[in-house]
């Protein structure tokens, strides 16, 4: 199984269009210590020919352009045969609008996320005779193009920012925010780009995994407030931060995961600065910081 990290940043990307925080400032100035990243999405394949995107970021066209595996092989062709969604936020879904030129694929999402798309008329550009929309049951096994075995599962999460109930039910587990499990040759890989807390069920699932790509939005829960970038804590945003006794580094430490990778990293997060104290601390704890173009073979 091959996995390409198409984008490793959280919503907004890094640097973000309207931000000159201490991390973005370095990226804008071309400092090699902060490599720009597009919004979070990965591509997976068993054979390198038939690919599935997990989430579809606003930058999907640039992501396809940068990854030869995803280039068309002939006139009106794409190796992208499916898209699986893990949430309804803009960074997960906006790229779908760029996949509208008449090449078929299957769009997999939980029933709730399918309803969200159906409620937004602009997604009707993905015509039903071209794009098949399949509602995924939680924990049901799914054969992705090429036969890759996957399933989606509930993750403690949060409604998308544009939903009227956005601030309610943060950390609830259901169809709003999901992770994706891949199984291949007796090994397990997980993609969990958004997670509000490590519930016992999620901890049990991730235990002993071969690879986990996990929500790396914030380093500190109050990072946006301290940096003067916003008024929300990580907890309010539905993102478990990395550091501290209640952070994800500590929470996932006892789970015996072979390879741990942070994805969906917000532009305010100092782990984006190579050689920063925070980057070193995360790496010392056994974590890798994903970047656009990272490849994982399982
Ligand atoms: C989030 O995960 O909270 C989103 O990336 C927010 C956003 O869309 O900006
Ligand atoms: Mn997001
Ligand atoms: Zn910034």
Explain what this protein looks like in three dimensions:
By secondary structure, this protein is an alpha/beta fold. It has one domain (2-297): Metallo-beta-lactamase, Chain A (4-Layer Sandwich), CATH 3.60.15. The protein contains nine helices and 14 strands. The protein has helices at 22-28, 60-66, 90-93, 111-119, 200-206, 223-226, 234-237, 248-252, 277-284, and strands at residues 2-7, 41-45, 51-54, 80-84, 105-110, 131-136, 142-143, 149-157, 172-184, 187-192, 211-215, 259-263, 287-289, 295-297. Strand 2 (41-45) and strand 3 form a beta hairpin. The longest helix is centred in the middle third of the chain and has 9 residues, at 111-119. It is globular, with a radius of gyration of 18 Å. The relative contact order is 0.17. Zinc ion binds next to helix 1.
Secondary structure topology:
Elements (H helix, E strand, L loop, with lengths): L1 E6 L14 H7 L12 E5 L5 E4 L5 H7 L13 E5 L5 H4 L11 E6 H9 L11 E6 L5 E2 L5 E9 L14 E13 L2 E6 L7 H7 L4 E5 L7 H4 L7 H4 L10 H5 L6 E5 L13 H8 L2 E3 L5 E3 L1
Parallel strand pairs: 3-4, 4-5, 5-6, 10-11, 11-12, 12-13
Antiparallel strand pairs: 1-2, 1-14, 2-3, 7-8, 8-9, 9-10
Low-confidence stretches: none
Largest sheet, strands/sense/barrel: 7 strands, mixed
CATH topology: Metallo-beta-lactamase, Chain A
Number of strands: 14
Our count of helices gives: 9
- The average pLDDT value, as a whole number, equals 98
Classified by CATH, the class is Alpha Beta
Shape designation? globular
Distance between the termini: 5 Å
Bound molecules: D-malate, manganese (II) ion, zinc ion
The tally of domains stands at 1
Radius of gyration: 18 Å
């Amino acid at each position: 199984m091959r996995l390409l990290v198409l984008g490793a940043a959280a919503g907004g990307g890094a640097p973000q269009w309207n931000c000159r925080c201490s991390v973005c400032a370095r990226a804008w100035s071309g400092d090699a210590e902060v490599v720009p990243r597009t919004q979070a999405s990965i591509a997976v394949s068993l054979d390198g020919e038939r690919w599935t995107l997990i989430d579809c970021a606003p930058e999907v066209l640039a992501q396809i352009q940068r990854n030869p595996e995803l280039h068309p092989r002939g006139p009106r062709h794409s190796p992208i045969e499916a898209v699986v969604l893990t949430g309804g936020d803009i960074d997960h879904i906006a790229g779908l609008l760029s996949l509208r030129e008449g090449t078929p694929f299957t769009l997999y999402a939980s029933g709730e996320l399918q309803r969200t798309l159906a409620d937004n008329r602009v997604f009707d550009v993905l015509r039903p005779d071209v794009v098949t929309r399949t509602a995924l049951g939680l924990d049901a096994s799914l054969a992705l193009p090429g036969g890759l075995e996957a399933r989606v599962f509930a993750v403690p999460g949060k409604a998308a920012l544009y939903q009227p109930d956005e601030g309610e039910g943060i950390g609830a587990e259901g169809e709003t925010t999901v992770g994706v499990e891949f199984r291949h040759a007796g090994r397990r890989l997980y993609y969990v780009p958004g997670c509000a807390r490590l519930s016992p069920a999620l901890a049990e699932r991730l235990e002993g995994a071969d690879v986990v790509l996990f929500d790396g939005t914030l380093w500190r829960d109050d990072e946006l407030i301290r940096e003067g970038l916003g008024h929300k804590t990580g907890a309010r945003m539905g993102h478990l931060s990395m550091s501290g006794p209640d952070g994800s580094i500590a929470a996932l430490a006892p789970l015996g995961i072979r390879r741990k990778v942070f994805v969906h990293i917000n532009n305010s997060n100092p782990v984006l600065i190579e050689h920063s104290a925070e980057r070193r601390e995360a790496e010392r704890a056994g974590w890798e910081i994903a970047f656009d173009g990272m490849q994982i073979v399982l």
